[in-house]
Amino acid sequence: MHKLTVYTFIVIVLIGTSACATPQEATQIPSLPTEVTEEDTIQPVESADIIFYNGQIITIEASNPSVEALAVKGNTILALGSEEEILALQDQHTQLIDLQGAALLPGFIDGHTHILAFPDRMGRSLAEAQETAIRYGFTTVNEMWSNQDYLDSLFQAEQEGNLRMRVNVFACYNIGMLDDNNQKIIMKTWYPENQPILDPEKHLRIPGIKIFVDGAMTAGRGCWALSEPYMPDSPILDSGICGSEYGDLYWSQEELNQVVQEAQNAGYRVAFHAMGDQAIETALDAIEFALNGEPNELHRHQIQHNSLARPDQLPRYETLNVLASVRGYGNFSLPEVSELHFGPDRDPWYANRYALANMDIHAYLETDFGWTVDPDDRFVQRTLDPIVHLFGLVTHKYVNEDGSICDPVSWTAAHAISVERALEMMTIEPAYAVSMEDYIGSLKPGKYADLIILSDNPLSIDPDIIKDLKVWMTMIAGKVEYCDNGKDMYCPNVNGGEINIAPSLEEPIQKTQIMFNCDNEENLPMNLKTNYHIQTYVRWGAKTEEQVNDFIESADCVILVDNKKVDSYISHSTVNPVPGKDMFFVHSSCDVGKLESGTHKILTRFVFDKRIYDGYDRYGPGTDNPTYEGTCTVTIEYLTY
Ligand SMILES: [Zn+2]
Q1: Tell me: the pLDDT tens digits for 514-560?
Q2: What does DSSP assign to residue 495?
Q3: 368 alpha carbon to ligand 1 midpoint, in Å?
Q4: Do 464 and 555 belong together in one domain?
Q5: Measured in angstroms, how far is the CA atom of residue 141 from the centroid of ligand 1?
């Protein structure tokens, strides 16, 4: 028997093996003795499906800000640690992703957006809107506008398995519009008829309601509500948009207090649209009334935009522990805008929206993306691009159309924040805003494997070139949802099938069947991307024939293998669910979704990469016998209809 060395600091998390398993608190297993026998070591160690290593892994966890490697099992993070610790968690079907110095982070979370539930969406389908967000590295969005129609479409997408990302909807209590008599329009979407949806395992949640407290300087919506009148010669007054020289406050204090109190009692977080200082005051007062001395930690009421916050209001955010959304990138550094409307000496008020980011409160990124600009336009107001928002939060610089960079004016530059803080505002803080901080928003054992790979480490590069970072991969719950062109080496292909494809809700769901046999010796340089479900199916043991048929019926892509000519590696991970057939997981990839409808014969080649096991033998040098080395050529019949 071998004498084996194991690493003493391995933190193992035992997680459920069902596809719907909810992350659990990390269970720390005490350090193992340094010399143990094989029987001692193999039993308790759960092997990883995927291991990322040789990169810069940013955890957003203060106690453990960066690690060398991360392991994923199913839909959750299995463990983080040194390369030695984590690579010890592999077995023969673990995929090793060599990050080659790239950065791995928790997926971005947009704390305030309108990308999914917005009228028109520039003609984009819900599926296309999701694809756009995922391409930018968003794994979760907090959707701040919704009527019943949009909620219905989101529920339908969830039911059909087409909600690829996590969506937290704040249902509109009133809409941000005034009627012909300058009165607010109450909508009461979802609430108070229904309970909040807070289940962490659901992709569609409704954790809160949205209340518009004032206008937005747009026709039909009225103006920001101010405690002192607009400047008499402000063009906004001439425009007829404002209901009064003080703007448009939608609520009396008593009325708003009552609504917030009731929503809080029903278990809802309240997000307030509040732009002018009087709207902020009214929202703060309503929060204070509803909390009635209880900590906001319990209720998580939050104020959006905070566009003109008075200096005396900032301490109230801290006292009440109110959450605040903060725009990342935007050309708010034009003094003439503030002075024109609000008068001299208002610049600090105008800049206080950024001061919130640096205070001891929960502040999170708002893109406020609402299809007013093209999602591919990067350096614009309300840009979707989180990389541009990160650049904005950290530098407060502005990029002109010709690509030249403007330095910020001093009163916004003073509120530039660290990259660490900005990343928190794009990950753990918006997770906190929807009470998901125990499940997403940082890299920690037991949390969902919502991960992105960036081309470089934003913590170590010159802040001016943060804007040039690229998102190379987006993973949600252990499944790759986006892989940048030419970056396949960073994308675990266990999950493929839908990579780079925007499935349209209007089109029928593609179903595929792929038959394998191993008697064709031709090799073509085409890979086969298998469907995520195949892997999970195999991983979680043999099933009855009925279960297999159900699975085949529901899966987008199914691989059935003739039970012959499989080498030892394949048989290692086979189960026997169908008489005479094996289902198995293929360490390769094929872009089946890009094929036209019809029948295709695809030749592919299995290449079992010995490299990844060399030097990383789990139980000591030479203990992993690479019997899987070699090639096996198969013919695939591919049908889509
Ligand atoms: Zn908004």
Answers
A1: 333 333 323 222 223 222 222 222 222 233 445 445 544 444 334 43
A2: G
A3: 5
A4: no
A5: 12
Among 71, 101, 131, the domain-final residue is: 101
Whole-structure pTM over 0.85, yes or no? no
Q: pLDDT at position 411, please?
A: 84
What tens digit of pLDDT does each residue of 133-190 get? Answer: 999 999 999 999 999 999 999 999 999 999 999 999 999 999 999 998 899 999 999 9
**How many A from CA of 328 to the centre of ligand 1?**
13
**pLDDT > 70: percent of the chain:** 69
113 and 205 share a domain?
yes
Same-domain check for residues 128 and 86 = no
Which of 101, 129, 160 terminates a domain? The answer is 101
What sign for the dihedral angle of Cα 482, 487, 489, 490? negative
Name 193's Cβ contacts closer than 8 Å, sequence gap at least 6: none
The pLDDT assigned to 249 comes to: 98
Quick one: 92 and 213 in the same domain?
no
Q: Which domain holds residue 52?
A: 4-101
Sign of the alpha-carbon torsion through 52, 56, 60, 64: positive
22 within a domain of the structure (yes/no): yes
Nearest one of 215, 625, 138 to 385, comparing CA atoms: 138
pLDDT of residue 372: 86
Say if residue 184 is in the same domain as residue 290: yes
Task: Identify the pLDDT of residue 332.
Answer: 61
Residues of the chain with pLDDT under 70: 1-45, 331-336, 494-641
Domains in the chain, number: 3
Q: How far is the CA of 305 from the centre of ligand 1 (A)?
A: 8
Could you tell me the distance, in angstroms and rounded to a whole number, from the CA of residue 114 to the centre of ligand 1?
Answer: 6
Give distance in angstroms: CA of 112 to centre of ligand 1: 6
Instruction: Give residues with Cβ within 8 angstroms of 453, minimum separation 6.
Output: 52, 55, 99, 102, 103, 104, 105, 471, 472, 473, 487, 490
Beta strands in 484-574 (DSSP E): 512-516, 557-562
Lookup: tokens for 149: 């129609």
- CATH number of the domain to which 271 belongs: 3.20.20.140
Residues having C-beta closer than 5 Å to ion ligand 1 = 144, 368
Residues 39 and 90 in one domain: yes
Condensed to tens digits (0 to 9), the pLDDT of residues 385-411 reads 999 999 999 999 989 888 889 888 888
Q: Where are the beta strands (DSSP E) in 328-483?
A: 363-366, 398-399, 405-406, 451-454, 471-476, 479-483
The dihedral sign for the CA sequence 131, 197, 423, 364: positive
Residue 482 domain-assigned (yes or no): no
